[in-house]
Amino acid sequence: MRTLITAIATAAVAMTAGIACAQFVSDAPAAVTTVATILDSGKDDQLVTLEGRITDQIKHNKYRFADKTGSIVAEIDDKVFAGRKVTPRTQLRVEAEVDKDRMKAAEIEIHKLEILN
Q: pTM, whole model, 2 decimals?
């Protein structure tokens, strides 16, 4: 009985050892979009790249992100800042996900933040 359990456990480990998690990462830069485009035709869960500034803090993890075409509410976790100092003068490139609901204005959730200046 013990050898049967050992054999089953060994087979299970062998079967799962070949399973790998992979992610494709392109070297090509993501096309930069605008706040106006997101507000006008953005889709829920759409991944976007924006360039602009954080103009003010609304509450703990909510900020206002603005570019030349407009502004949008952005959710940014503390870990995304990674201890970096960002002011309203800091030019940023961000990668975010659109959060669009029929009952409220579109927002973005920023997953990556790069300081440009």
A: 0.75
